[in-house]
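User: Hey, my collaborator sent me this sequence without any context and asked if I could get a structure. I don't really work with proteins. Can you help?
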Amino acid sequence: MINCAELKNFGPIEQLDWQNLGKINLVIGNNGCGKSFLLKALYSAVRTLEDYKRGDNPDNVDDILRSKLYWTFQAEKIADLVANFSRGRELGKLSFSLILNEQKFSYELSEKFTKNFSTLENKVTPRSENSIFLPAKEILSFHHIIDASREINKLFGFDDTYFDLTKALKQIPLPVIQEISWDNSVAVLNNSNYSSIRGRNYFDFNNARIKIRAMIGGEMEFDDAKKRWYFKKGEQRFPMGVTAEGNRKVAVLDNLLGNGYLSESSIIFMDEPESTLHPQYISELLDIIAILANHGIQFFIASHSYFVIKKLFLIAQEQQMSIPVLSYQNNEWVQSDLKDNLPDNPIIDESIKLYEQQLDLSDI
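Assistant: No problem. I've predicted the 3D structure and written it out in structure-token form, which is a compact way to encode the shape of the chain:
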């Protein structure tokens, strides 16, 4: 779990110090303030730590981070990520640090260093978990294009958040279990012992997967022979072109929970989860996120939606759950917690303004 993060002169982010992070963390603000950029910066660091010393990977942490930043932000050189802000701070120097499970990872990058980090410190124990970035767009309908663009042609266009996601979805998920019987604390289904296949996490996530499939009215299934995804509803199968984009997007989470890629210590970064979703779907998805957060997965969500803010506020109040919010206001980042109250923010202000205009019209 990420405990806190600090960025300076990193792309559009001049200075940001986010403390006391929780199971669910929300970033809100206007276009261009750096919400998605922040999530990608955090994701790049976490995935670096997860690739480092995994299996027989001989790469050192510097090389892994350099590659991750290059392919995630797709700058011509990673020194291009260094921002030149004035206001008395040192120019031409980017710094990033996070505390993960109370252990520190940090690095600095200067414009003078086009290839190497001026400093890098890693005190984090190598991770066996997997984290993932879920972009605003669905990817099931064009996953093969992402593979060809990145795996074969090595081209800019689809950054590592998309490419990592296509790779994570390649393992086929286990089926959802509708009924579980227990024998001496071992899960048994159709005389099969599932504990050796996925362990406890598989069953923790099973209820969330059932809710996802009820929400979209079916499931996504990959046809290995045709190398295509299909939407399966009962015994019928539909191509992606006639399947709702919102269903395609939400189904990705079902597959990642079922194929063993995600575990209880994973971190999920979600960019605009409300995109292409009906407000009812948004509410149901956030209920599922709350279930998964209570099973250990940490979430970072960037959003423009009043529905997202309001629903997470209700979850925080109902469950007495701390949901830290980072809000961009008046050219600075402001921290609050939905457990305490709704933050002041242009998104909320605009919603109130529209409501007041409606009341004025009703008085005419």
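In plain terms: The chain has two domains: 1-130+265-364, 140-261. You can pass these tokens on to your collaborator as they are.
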